[in-house]
Write a structure and sequence with these properties.
By secondary structure, the protein is of the alpha+beta class. The protein contains 4 helices and 8 strands. It has an 8-stranded mixed sheet with strand order 1-2-3-4-5-6-8-7, with helices on both faces.
Length: 190
């Protein structure tokens, strides 16, 4: 079900209405382009070589095959961001915990796209069998991502120091976590 937020601003040449919907395979080229930018120019991802559309499509199908949410945000018929929840770790006892990923088109950073995606992703996950959401934020200097997560109820739970090496420097990985649904997770059936 699409989520719409409309905030028109006469000073901008385009609509600021953003729609959130489930991603489809036809979205892969746009998703690949957004992710490519972050891999090549940022430290949010610890990948050093940008995967091609075939690989992104394989990752998309793997997430969707597990019935996990994968969403895109659209403004003026253009995908301006995407997010998904994936398996936190492969051991079965972790099956009720997900890890989030959110990426926004470089020309849309700081415009609320990430916050809309985060809200929609949390809502979808709370409706599913998951009870915890974790975030592994690349680079402790990524204050925008840390702040975004804090605004959505995530708490800092730790930092792995100097676990990544990219752009000729050592990078930390910040770990954050929030409950999904009730404060005291009920043991789910499944």
């Amino acid at each position: 079900m699409p989520l719409n937020t409309a905030t028109k601003d006469a000073a901008t040449p385009h609509s600021t209405e953003i729609t959130i919907r489930d991603a489809v395979i036809e979205d892969i080229p746009a998703i690949t382009a957004i992710y490519r930018h972050h891999v090549l120019h940022g430290t949010a991802s610890f990948e050093e070589e940008a995967p091609d559309a075939t690989e992104i499509g394989n990752r998309f199908r793997a997430i969707r095959d597990k019935c996990m949410p994968y969403l895109v945000s659209i403004r003026d018929d253009v995908i301006v961001g995407y997010c998904y929840a994936s398996t936190y770790r492969p051991r079965t006892a972790y099956r009720h915990t997900v890890e989030n990923s959110i990426y926004v088109a470089p020309d849309c950073v700081g415009q609320g796209v990430g916050s809309l995606l985060m809200s929609a992703l949390i809502e979808r996950c709370e409706a599913g069998p998951w009870r915890q959401m974790v975030a592994a934020i690349g680079d402790s200097a990524n204050k925008a991502s840390i702040t975004l997560h804090q605004r959505h109820g995530f708490e800092m739970v730790g930092t792995f120091k100097k676990v990544g090496y990219k752009f000729d420097r050592w990078l930390d990985s910040v770990l954050m976590q929030r409950s999904l649904g009730e404060d005291s997770p009920v043991i789910p059936r499944s």
